[in-house]
Write a structure and sequence with these properties.
Chain A: It is found in: Cell membrane. Chain A: InterPro entries: MetI-like, MetI-like_sf. Chain A: Keywords: Cell membrane, Membrane, Transmembrane, Transmembrane helix, Transport. Chain A: Belongs to the binding-protein-dependent transport system permease family. The complex is a heterotrimer of chains A (292), B (249) and C (265). Chain A is an all-alpha fold and 292 residues long. Chain A has a domain of 200 residues: Orthogonal Bundle (MetI-like fold). Chain A has 13 helices and no strands. Chain A starts with a helix and ends in a 10-residue tail after the last helix. With 249 residues, chain B is of the alpha/beta class. In chain B, strand 9 and strand 10 form a beta hairpin. In chain B, helix 2 crosses helix 3, helix 3 crosses helix 4 and helix 6 packs across helix 7. The longest helix of chain B is centred in the C-terminal third of the chain and has 17 residues. Chain C is mostly helical. Chain C has a single domain, classed as Orthogonal Bundle (MetI-like fold), CATH 1.10.3720.10. The chains are: A mainly alpha (292), B alpha/beta (249), C mainly alpha (265). The interface between A and C is large, with 81 and 78 residues. The complex binds adenosine-5'-triphosphate and magnesium ion. The site of adenosine-5'-triphosphate (ATP) has 15 residues of chain B, from strand 2 and helix 1. Adenosine-5'-triphosphate binds next to strand 2 and helix 1 of chain B.
Chain lengths: 292, 249, 265
């Protein structure tokens, strides 16, 4: 539950509404304006950027402009990157390079891990074989595989995709597995009573019932995938958003580093929204879950 | 039609303990008869119904359906579950047409049958709704329609109205009687409510309140239908059943 | 009730043996694959080699400059530093965001800006800011642990039963009292859930931070293994990371159970 909630995308929650009712509505007053949500959001964002700008201007963090860039410098840098090529690619080229890696790795992992997880949940013997191996390898963070994957596959695409596959494999498999195990067992009885066979139980109960859990796993995987691709690109790459960040670091250009961070945040956010939309589409029966 | 012969059931619980739930239960149900099994909570009623459904195997004894011993679940018996047990990912129509589809009927035919029974339980207009958009009573109707849609020879209902409020419950009881009279079947109905039992049953089998559950008595109810919940005979029988069952508690 | 008869429930023998067989097969296959040269030993080291190195590393500082347990100790220090800071900041913040509108209004936009940035992406900036010493890594780890702490605490408060809140209001409880006596207790299970999740996040980010900017620690050992083309050191580092992580996970799990038991009473 907690894992699901942790990674569910930004959406208004049930609890939000119900707890919100408690706030009584009085006439408009200064206090009410000051505690208005949108007002506070605005204050917070303005304060954030102002503080950032101030920090960048006033050398508190250390020597000069090589430590932090001002917000508008970051924007200018990004604009420059969309026009001028860095290592033969514009900003879009780098975004695409990273996204491609994420999508490929993520798809491979999901395609293997989800069926395997379902299979493990459905068959005790498969479970007895796979689970211990899985438990053995699970505690190693995917990032710790970067070195060995470079030894194996060099610094090309394969090693990056490999890291992403490893990283996203775990949550995909675990959630598919748990999704099936959490199915209300009487639903299987319903299918059997209606004249269904084992095949129907799997088709009509296991799969749909584990769908929401699988999607939660996909969401978690996705954020891990972005972390992995970034880490891999930071260690060694000729393209991708991690490469932009590394270049910024090597050239002592914080604007480029922060620009890269902003772009990757946007990309991660975008893919999360995409999966959420897909989930809405594919699981119309699912009610909203509490989330931030 | 259904014959339970000396059915006993003992569960083995997690702590490796044996829990006897049913002991030596023998019940006979005639074709098209409405039999109510009446017993307090935790007396093994659901277990008995699941055994008849073929979802559990009795520890000893057999269940015989039309001369054949029951060995597993099958579409010739329709079970309405105590919790609603609808498929949350299917619409009302999807839930109801599932049985016919699983039995290999073509799509259109399955749909027609499903629509017929959705109509019969009074849910027309709600075919496209998902279970979470329905009230408890409506969910239970879907459960009933789903069991009926398979045209089972025997309907098994497990406290179908246990979670409803008193008014809806009475209404649903009347509906059940109506549906049963339009579409005659053998019905085995489990409840813990004496009024409900008396209102619906041709025959009432009471189960003792302590584990293991045993058959206590059988009452034949030959009051004319629809029954008057406050009629003299009704109240007399009610008193008799209650007196007898309170003694065993 | 009568005492029921005890019976023994058996699990099939195969189910007991299969896990052992599968793990054994894994290691044996690994050993064979390396020994026979199917996979060259520049790419992978056999388990026996790794074990040898494991014992060797307790007494030999070469070639990476520190003993194994020193590396592990550095990593644990960093991880716990970042972890506890994340708990100390994230949990109160999340709880406050869950209950006080002002806190949510002010903190949420910033949180939403920072959340999608993988903590790994901060590494270059922290190198600018703190160099490659302990503070920079603690910062990265702190960022990684912060997000799940805030989210779980927030969700925990939001899941407080609204009826209870309304009841408290009818008894005239103040906002602060409701927060202290109702919201925080009901958020506790989620908060404890955060302990594990945050730890996993911290541990992952630790490795990332050490891969890129470190002069000691398990992640550093892995990097050195690659630079020196010593696959056995890479594999040893990976196993140590996994083992230490799992070990800390078990400890946290114990603590969590103990604390939860205390609450239930
Ligand atoms: N699969 C099982 N394993 C172990 N014990 C079980 C199992 N199913 C039922 N029991 C036990 O059998 C007893 C009777 O359960 P059952 O569900 O048949 O009662 P019931 O009469 O239907 O009660 P209610 O009116 O509350 O539905 C209970 O004490 C229950 O704990
Ligand atoms: Mg029951």
């Amino acid at each position: 539950m907690s894992q699901e909630a942790t990674c569910s995308a930004a959406s208004s929650s049930i609890a939000n509404e119900t707890v919100g009712q408690v706030v009584d509505r009085g006439p408009i007053s200064l206090g009410r304006i000051l505690t208005n949500r949108w007002f506070l959001h605005t204050v917070s964002i303005v304060a954030f950027f102002w503080l950032w700008d101030w920090l960048a201007r006033s050398n508190v963090l250390g020597a000069g402009s090589s430590v932090l860039a001002r917000p508008h410098e970051v924007l200018e840098q990004l604009a420059v990157l969309t026009r001028e090529e860095l290592a033969e690619l514009t900003l879009w080229g780098h975004v695409w390079a990273s996204t491609q890696r994420v999508v490929i790795g993520f798809s491979i992992a999901a395609a293997i891990a989800v069926p395997l997880g379902l299979f493990m949940a459905l068959n005790r013997y498969v479970n007895a074989i796979v689970k211990p191996l899985f438990d053995l390898l699970k505690p190693m963070p995917p990032i710790s595989w970067i070195s060995i994957s470079i030894l194996w596959f060099g610094i090309g695409e394969t090693s990056k995709v490999f890291i992403i596959v490893l990283g996203t494999f775990v949550p995909c498999l675990l959630n598919a597995y748990n999704g099936v195990r959490l199915v209300e067992p009487e639903l299987y009885d319903v299918v059997r009573m209606l004249g269904g066979k084992r095949r129907d139980e799997i088709l009509h109960v296991c799969f749909p019932a584990s769908f929401p859990a699988i999607f939660a796993g996909l969401q978690i995987s996705l954020s891990i995938a972005w972390t992995c691709v970034l880490a891999a690109e930071l260690v060694s790459a000729r393209s991708g958003m991690g490469y932009i960040i590394v270049q910024g670091m090597n050239l002592s250009q914080p604007a480029m580093v922060i620009g890269g961070m902003a772009v990757i945040a946007a990309a991660a956010w975008g893919t999360t929204l995409l999966v959420t939309a897909l989930e809405r589409k594919l699981c119309p029966w699912k009610r909203k879950i509490v989330g931030l | 039609m259904i014959e339970c012969r000396n059915v006993s059931k003992t569960f083995i619980q997690k702590g490796s303990q044996e829990v006897p739930v049913l002991e030596d239960v023998s019940i006979d149900v005639q074709a098209n008869e409405f039999v109510v099994i009446l017993g307090p909570g935790q007396s093994g009623k659901s277990t008995l119904l699941r055994i008849i459904a073929g979802l559990e195997t009795p520890t000893t004894g057999t269940v015989i359906l039309d001369g054949e011993p029951v060995t597993g679940p099958g579409a010739d018996r329709g079970l309405v579950f105590q919790g609603y047990m609808l498929f949350p990912w299917k619409t009302v129509l999807g839930n109801v047409e599932m049985g016919p589809k699983l039995c290999g009927l073509p799509r259109d035919e399955a749909r027609d049958i499903a629509m017929h029974y959705i109509d019969l339980v009074g849910l027309n207009g709600f075919e496209k709704h998902y279970p979470h958009q329905l009230s408890g009573g409506m969910k239970q109707r879907v459960g009933i329609a789903r069991a009926y849609a398979n045209k089972p020879r025997v309907m098994l209902l497990d406290e179908p109205f246990g979670q409803l409020d008193a008014q809806t419950r009475i209404f649903m009881e009347q509906e059940t009687e109506r549906i049963w009279q339009t579409d005659k079947r053998t019905v085995l109905f489990v409840t813990n409510n004496t009024d409900e039992a008396l209102f619906l049953a041709d025959r009432i089998v009471t189960i003792e309140g302590k584990l293991p559950g045993r058959v206590q008595r059988t009452y034949t109810v030959d009051l004319p239908r629809p029954r008057d919940l406050t009629g003299k005979h009704f109240l007399e029988m009610r008193r008799e059943i209650i007196d007898a069952s309170v003694l065993t508690l | 009730m009568t005492a029921y008869r005890e019976v023994v429930v058996r699990t099939p023998l195969a189910l007991k043996i299969l896990p052992i067989v599968s793990v054994a097969t894994f290691f044996i296959a690994w050993e064979i694959v390396v020994r026979t040269g199917v996979v060259p030993d520049t790419m992978l080291a056999a388990p026996t080699t790794v074990t040898q190195l494991l014992f060797d590393k307790f007494t030999n500082v070469d070639p990476d400059g520190a003993l194994l347990h020193q590396h592990a100790w550095v990593s644990i220090q960093e991880a716990f530093g970042g972890y506890f800071l994340a708990l100390a900041v994230g949990l109160p913040l999340g709880l406050a965001m869950g209950w006080f509108n002002v806190a949510e209004g002010l903190a949420r936009p910033i949180f939403e800006i920072i959340r999608p940035i993988p903590p790994v992406a901060w590494i270059p900036l922290t190198i600018f800011w703190f160099g490659i010493g302990l503070p920079g890594k603690i910062f990265i780890i702190w960022l990684g642990g912060l997000v799940p702490c805030v989210i779980n605490a927030y969700v925990g408060v939001k899941m407080t039963n609204p009826t209870l809140i309304q009841m408290a209001r009818t008894y005239g409880a103040s906002d602060w009292q409701i927060f202290r006596q109702l919201c925080i207790p009901s958020a506790l299970p989620m908060v404890f859930g955060a302990l594990q999740i945050a730890l996993a996040c911290c541990w992952t980010n630790l490795v990332a931070a050490e891969l890129l900017a470190a002069d000691a620690g398990l992640g550093f050992m892995i990097t050195m293994g690659r630079r020196l083309a010593m696959p056995e050191m890479v594999v040893l580092g990976m196993f140590m990371v996994g083992l230490t992580g799992a070990f800390i996970g078990v400890i946290i799990d114990r603590v969590e159970k103990r604390l939860l038991a205390g609450i239930r009473r």
